Each structure stands twice: as structure tokens, then as C-alpha cells.
UniProtKB/TrEMBL annotation:
Gene3D superfamilies named in the record: Zincin-like metallopeptidase, N-terminal domain (1.20.150.30)
Transmembrane segments: none
Source organism per UniProt: Corynebacterium halotolerans YIM 70093 = DSM 44683
Pfam families documented for this protein: Zincin_2
Domain of life: Bacteria
Name of the protein in question: Hydrolase
Region Disordered: start-end pairs: 1-33, 442-484
């Protein structure tokens, strides 16, 4: 596992043992520097680095290379890592369309949220990269921007003054570094992902239900389940997600805004590095002390500690991802459990996949650079199951009408309070919080409209036309006989 300073992580699942030995011998091997035997000298390394910069000149000077992440470089590296992949066969396209159509019919019995409609497509890894890159840019850019600024802010004032003239070049180099790491991460992910919104992340274009049949065939080759059943199961999961993303309009933006809020509070702490440097006593000039210090350095973690002042954004992200995937797993099990006997086995295989790498938190760590705890999907599945039993699927799914009605992180560990609230809201009086909010908003809008139509009145009670104020007061007086 290689981890960059930006927080990107990606697996090196290369089967070429010789290449691994080369990279172990040569610390620059992962970037293509050094001879085949890993013994290239410093001159060779610098020469190759210069050639790389020369070859990337167009990338650095292009609009795509000018921002906090060199996306042109990232896309080039990702496509190189994907290598050549066969085009999706026509029979696979038909199989995907039929599987989604069948899954949608079954899901109609498990949720009141209607089908997402839109287009149904079959992708290969290259298609996935092309189609999802715009959303990855939305997620990555704010983190990279604030990371760059946090790195500058963490420097001493005199260091910031000295690097002022070189700031543009350093930003370009930083953008290249992020681009290389992003490209490797996306290239790796493109070969693993099974759908357009795998891991519960809405990275596919809106109103697009996308399935990757080639990736599914490779990942499920050891699963003793008919290929058609696997395809329908994965299609059902993706179709269920798309129902949420299509009919819960605030959901996608809530996920993105949580990432942006986290990024806005990024803080880099290098105090432990400064303390370690002081303890090494390098100023003494003693060769033995310096040698000892170098040995101690090898065992130290000198990476900066990255955190965010807006830690609550990560917690909301964890909870929201858990609720999405938990709801999807519950409704798919309800839709398919009695129809397809292998549903339980496929659900268990999906959970293993989530635990060993195919998960939202690992995708975020690889691509976006945010690390957080694994969402509590199993707890969310149980919460939705209990809500279904307690109040039925219609009341269960109305929870998605507003973010304030969703279960909290605490409810995932103890769902009783949330279930009790659902039961109270659906009691004999028929109280519906959504309807009450809509009624209040309508009343407020009506009040504004009425106020705007009424003529303004002066302090004497007469309007601008000079007419007397409402005679209802006089009429009331006559009726009670007071004459007042």
C-alpha cells in the first residue's frame, strides 16, 4: 500500500515480481525512474526526471494542469493503468438492460420510491473513468485546494517569504503530485468497481443506471452462483441507489457539501516533526551523532498529521453513507429474498467485498483523500428492517423526505428511540410532520402575498385613498347595542 501526502492510497497489485524488486531497490521506481536493475545513479535519475517534466510540459501549461490537481495528468495515468479493455459486447448490453428491468419490477414491491427512469447503460473500465471523472473532480478539488493552503500556512513566516517567487512553480508541482496519485487511484478503482455508484457514492451522471459486466464477471468468478442471478442482484442494488439519488433531491448535494465542509477546515500539524528534528541534535556536527540520527530517522513517521476543524462533516458523511447502503441492502433483500434463493449468499459476498476493499471509506481515502471509519452498514440494515416492521415501507421511506428526519449516528447503535419517534408520528391522530411543514410553508407564502396586496395604512387607520378603516368595528358595536 502506497500512501501519498495528500492522503491518497492505492494498491500495487502488480504480478510482476521483478518490477516489485526494482521498486524496492529504487525509491523512485514507482514513478518510472531508474534502470531495469534499479541501480541507476543520481545523474540518471535527474536525467529521467527532466525527461518526464519535458514530456509533461503541455499538461502543466494546459487549463487542466493549472489548478490544485493536474487532472489531465491524472486521466492519462489512469488510462495507462487501465490499459486496453475490450468494448462491451452487445449481448452484455442486452443482459444488463433485462436485469435492470427485472430488478425494477421486484423493487416496486419493496419500496414506495418509484423507479429512477433515465438511461440504463453497460460500461467497461474506460467508460467508468470518462463518465465519473466530473464528479470525482467536484469531490477532490476542494480538498486539494485547502490542502495546498494548509501546507503553506503550516510553514514559518520566513519560509513563506522566501518561497514567494517560487509559489507558482510549487503549486504546479503540487498539482502534478496530486494528479499522479489521483490517476493511480482512479485507474485501480476503475478495474474494481461494479456499478456507476458503487460504494454508495453518486459519481455517475444523474439519471444513469450503469453496470460494468466485465468487472462483475471477474469479481464473481469464484462465487458459486449463476451469472444471471449475480447480474440481477447487482443491478437491483444499483437501481435502488438510483431511486434514492433521483427522488431524494437533497441527498447528492448533502454528500458533496460534507466533503467541501471537511476540506474548508483542513489543518496540518507538523509540530511532532519539529520536535523530532530538535531531539536529533544535528547541529552538533559530530559524525557519530549524525549517523545515529539517520538510523533513528528511518523508524520515524515524519508525515504531517492532517485533521479538520470540521470533524462533524466526516461524521455526517459516515452516517449518510451507512444509511444509503443499509437502505439499499434491506430493500434488495426484501425484493429478491423470496424470489432468488441465492440472495443471502450474494449479500454475504457483498459484505466481504466491502470489508476487504470495496468500500466507501477506502474509495474516499484512495481518491478524495479523506479518511474515516467504516460506515455502520450492518447497523443501518437492522434499523431500516425494524422501521419497516414498526410502521411499514411507506412511512419508512418518507423519512428520506427531509434530512432532519433521518436517523442520527447514535440511532445506528440504538434504534429504539428512532423507532419510537416513528410510532408516535404515525399515531391515531394521523400527525404527519411532512404535511405539517408543507402546510406551514404554504400559510407563510399566503400571508406574504396578502400583505403585498393590501394598501398601506397610516396611523389614523385610513388607507392612502382616504377611506375610513374597516366598518366591522362599528357593526360589532351596533350588534351588541353599546354604540361604542
Amino acid at each position: 500500500m502506497n500512501t501519498g501526502g495528500f492522503g491518497f492510497s492505492f494498491n500495487n497489485d502488480d504480478d510482476d515480481d521483478d518490477r516489485r524488486r526494482d521498486q524496492n531497490q529504487n525509491p523512485f521506481g514507482a514513478f518510472g525512474f531508474g534502470g531495469a536493475d534499479g541501480s541507476g545513479g543520481l545523474g540518471d535519475l535527474l536525467n529521467q526526471f527532466g525527461q518526464m517534466l519535458s514530456g509533461m510540459g503541455s499538461s502543466m501549461n494546459s487549463p487542466e494542469g493549472a489548478g490544485p490537481v493536474n487532472y489531465q495528468l491524472a486521466e492519462r495515468i489512469a488510462r495507462q493503468q487501465i490499459d486496453s479493455v475490450p468494448a462491451v459486447r452487445s449481448q452484455d448490453v442486452s443482459a444488463v438492460e433485462e436485469s435492470v428491468r427485472l430488478a425494477e419490477l421486484w423493487l416496486d414491491d419493496a419500496t414506495v420510491l418509484p423507479t429512477a427512469e433515465g438511461r440504463v447503460v453497460a460500461w467497461n473500465a474506460e467508460d467508468w473513468l470518462t463518465e465519473t471523472l466530473p464528479m470525482w473532480k467536484r469531490l477532490v478539488t476542494p480538498v486539494a485546494e485547502h490542502m495546498n493552503q494548509a501546507q503553506i500556512d503550516s510553514l514559518p513566516a520566513e519560509a513563506r517569504d522566501m518561497m514567494g517567487p517560487m509559489l507558482q512553480m510549487m503549486n504546479q508541482m503540487s498539482g502534478m503530485n496530486f494528479g499522479m496519485q489521483l490517476g493511480n487511484a482512479l485507474g485501480d478503482l476503475a478495474k474494481q468497481t461494479l456499478t456507476g455508484s458503487d460504494f454508495g457514492l453518486p459519481v455517475a451522471p444523474a439519471d444513469t443506471t450503469a453496470i460494468l459486466p466485465g468487472n462483475i464477471a471477474r469479481s464473481a468468478k469464484d462465487l458459486n452462483v449463476p451469472a444471471q442471478e449475480i447480474l440481477v442482484y447487482i443491478a437491483a442494488r444499483e437501481a435502488a441507489r438510483q431511486r434514492l439519488f433521483r427522488h431524494v433531491p437533497w441527498l447528492v448535494e448533502r454528500l458533496v457539501s460534507s466533503v467541501e465542509e471537511y476540506a474548508a477546515g483542513l489543518v496540518i500539524d507538523t509540530s511532532h516533526i519539529e520536535e523530532a528534528a530538535r531531539d536529533l541534535n544535528l547541529e552538533s556536527g559530530d559524525p557519530s551523532a549524525i549517523q545515529d540520527a539517520m538510523q533513528r530517522l528511518q523508524g520515524m513517521d515524519l508525515s504531517p498529521k492532517i485533521s479538520s476543524r470540521n470533524a462533524g462533516a466526516v461524521s455526517r458523511l459516515e452516517t449518510l453513507l451507512a444509511l444509503v447502503e443499509g437502505w439499499v441492502e434491506h430493500v434488495v433483500t426484501e425484493a429478491m429474498g423470496q424470489r432468488v434463493p441465492s440472495t443471502g449468499a450474494m449479500t454475504e459476498a457483498w459484505r466481504r467485498r466491502r470489508a476487504t476493499g470495496g468500500s466507501a471509506e477506502q474509495a474516499f481515502a484512495k481518491v478524495v483523500g479523506i479518511e474515516f471509519s467504516a460506515p455502520k452498514v450492518a447497523e443501518a440494515v437492522e434499523l431500516w428492517r425494524r422501521a419497516d416492521i414498526a410502521v411499514g415501507q411507506e412511512r419508512r421511506d418518507k423519512v428520506w423526505d427531509h434530512p432532519d428526519f433521518l436517523p442520527s449516528a447514535e440511532h445506528l447503535d440504538n434504534s429504539a428511540e428512532f423507532i419510537d419517534a416513528l410510532l408516535d408520528e404515525g399515531g391515531a391522530d394521523g400527525f404527519d410532520p411532512i404535511a405539517e411543514i408543507n402546510k406551514l410553508e404554504e400559510m407563510l407564502r399566503g400571508g406574504d402575498s396578502k400583505d403585498s396586496l393590501e394598501a398601506p395604512k397610516d396611523k389614523s387607520g385610513e388607507d392612502e385613498s382616504g377611506e375610513a378603516k374597516d366598518e366591522s368595528e362599528d357593526e360589532d358595536g351596533k350588534e351588541d347595542g353599546s354604540g361604542r
